[in-house]
Design brief:
Blueprint lengths: L6 H17 L7 H10 L20 H11 L10 H14 L2 H13 L4 E4 L15 E4 L5 E12 L6 E7 L10 E7 L5 E6 L8 E12 L3 E2 L5 H16 L10 H12 L4 H24 L7 H22 L25 H7 L10 H12 L10
Parallel strand pairs: 1-4
Antiparallel strand pairs: 2-3, 3-7, 4-5, 5-8, 6-7
Helix pairs in contact: 1-3, 2-5, 4-5, 4-6, 6-9, 7-9, 8-9, 9-10, 9-11
Length: 384
């Protein structure tokens, strides 16, 4: 359901923005300092409660804040901390304690503390509730001991914290025996190994947990309530992955147009494909704008559409390059400090784009969510 912004809410956001920009010039202020001031002004996530980086305003007003800040030249912190900003913050607001909100939210939005998700395992990907990483409560009840193996954790190599989904009750129901813990990625027993992708970079990692000690005060949500916390993060992660482009013709389609002009290829078939892709990209952008103002499950529509359209655009770009599209001049291991494809070589972007329909839940999972949670169709049979 889409919630339209109220005039009072928009007036409040614009007043806060005007005050923020008058006191902190983005061009002359350290980026982390500016993001901290933005958080304090309630403009990090305007729909979050006051004191948590928000104003308690309608989600639609986030686009107003983002657009005006971009126009003013404020740097976007999302690529530096996509999991923290896009997923974990919402879980901390929804399920965390007051102490946890005070401890973690501001560093998340300043990007001073990067987060990763410790969810997927070698034997638990699409069936996430099948995780086997064990979290054992010590007899005194103050500490958990965690042992297990996680994979495909974005930016785990630079993360300060990891949100872990672990099995705390091996004899309980499949979805009911899970607990979420915030793991200090510098703690003894945490081992991070880069996972090289086919583009040569290692944006994702595998994480080995060898008897890692986690204090109970770093448990997010109740013992056995991990599946509910996980659903909150996944809903918001999909919403973040479907973030709308700020302007028409931006993103991958802009690179396709640049290459078209550069190549000077006037083949009518390719021209028709380019026109079709531009229309699809604009439809995806407008869909993302529309769903961004509603409940998180609706964002799965935009996320699915955007990922598949972007894949087709990068395929088109590589075809435009002709024989040189098969050349790859550097496959040295790269360890990115941020997520995203901005500034990437077309060939690298094409290879990286294969992950777009896998990350944040596969395209098949997205279609099941769309059928069940958006269209209200009967769910597939599931074990409890």
């Amino acid at each position: 359901m889409t919630v339209e912004p109220s005039p009072a809410g928009e007036r409040l956001v614009r007043e806060r923005l005007a005050r923020l920009l008058s006191e902190h010039d983005p061009a002359a202020t350290d980026e982390a300092v500016f993001r901290g001031a933005r958080f304090d002004a309630g403009l990090a996530r305007v729909d979050f409660p006051p004191g948590c980086g928000g104003l308690g305003a309608e989600p639609a007003l986030q686009g107003v804040a983002d657009d005006l800040l971009a126009t003013a030249g404020a740097a976007d912190g999302w690529p530096l901390n996509p999991v923290g900003v896009g997923a974990v913050a919402a879980a901390v607001v929804a399920h965390g304690t007051d102490a946890q909100r005070a401890r973690w939210l501001r560093p998340i939005f300043t990007c001073e503390e990067v987060w990763c998700l410790l969810y997927t395992e070698p034997g638990a990907g699409s069936d996430l509730a099948a995780v086997t990483t064990a979290a054992v409560h010590d007899p005194d009840g103050e500490v958990w001991t965690v042992t297990g193996h996680k994979v495909f954790s974005t930016l785990a190599h630079v993360a300060r914290w990891g949100l872990l989904l672990a099995r705390s009750d091996p004899d309980g129901p499949k979805h009911g025996g899970l607990t979420c813990l915030a793991v200090d990625m510098r703690a003894p027993g945490v081992q991070v190994r880069p996972l090289r992708q086919m583009d040569g970079d290692a944006e994702f990692d595998e994480v080995l947990l060898h008897g890692v000690r986690v204090p109970d005060c770093d448990r997010i949500g109740g013992d056995g309530n991990g599946w509910t916390v996980a659903l909150t993060t996944l809903d918001h992660e999909r919403q973040a992955l479907a973030r709308p482009g700020r302007t028409r013709g931006s993103g991958p389609i802009a690179e396709a147009l640049r290459l078209w002009r550069q190549q000077g290829d006037h083949d009518p078939v390719m021209r028709d494909r380019l026109a079709r892709l531009w229309i699809e990209a604009e439809a995806a952008r407008l869909t993302a704008v529309r769903t961004a103002t509603g409940e998180p499950p609706a964002a799965v529509v935009a996320r699915l559409l955007t990922s598949e359209v972007d894949q087709r655009i990068w395929e088109f770009c590589v075809e435009l390059l002709g024989p040189s599209g098969a050349l790859y001049d550097d496959w040295n291991l790269g360890i990115p400090r941020a997520a995203g494809e901005s500034g990437r070589d077309v060939r690298r972007a094409f290879l990286r784009s294969r992950a777009l329909t896998i990350q944040g839940g596969t395209a098949e999972i997205s279609r099941s969510l769309l059928a069940e949670r958006v269209l209200g169709l009967p769910p597939e049979p599931r074990s409890v």
